[in-house]
Amino acid sequence: MERRGQSGQKEQQRIYTLTLRRFHYTSTLEPVMKSKLLTEVPFEQLEMSGSNLTDGVFALLVKAIEAHGVNRLSLNVGNVKNRDPITALFRLSTLVRSLHITQHHYNTYGAHEFFGRYSLDWALVFLKMFSNKLDKLRVENRSFKDYLSIEQANVLVERLPLLEKHVWFEATCNKYDNGLSVERDGYWIEVLNK
Description:
The chain is of the alpha/beta class. About 30% of the residues lie in helices and about 30% in strands. The strands form four sheets. It has a six-stranded parallel β-sheet with strand order 3-4-5-6-9-10, covered by helices on one side.
């Protein structure tokens, strides 16, 4: 889509943030992804929410990110039904610079769950994600507060400052009763007791 500016020159229309809500299945998302708006108007940031993240929905999400060069993704999910959600997270970390994931309550395993997996070493996953394009990660997981153990949180506190690039990381963590605030190797690390 083009429009004429004040000088009479053709200008490309651009959307800064595209928000897609309540897309739970591929069948409801696919027609929207093929719409003229999404195929012709570029956008920089994508916010997407739905109760199910299936392989089909994820494939459409990746296709949109690649087609538009999206650098910032906000993903609000409930039930992650992706066959390999860890590989999916690694894939996203190669495509976007900023990723915000909000995990909503869904009737699944319980307190130790995040992104469809139970009792995983999330510190290593998050650190590996930062080895790709990703340099900003925010994880909100208030429904399953024990997904990140104290040992994993301590690994992040120790190893994030040692990465070869500057990163911004924020995650819900209920392991520090009084919070934590330290300066290490020129990096400020703060854990808020939220």
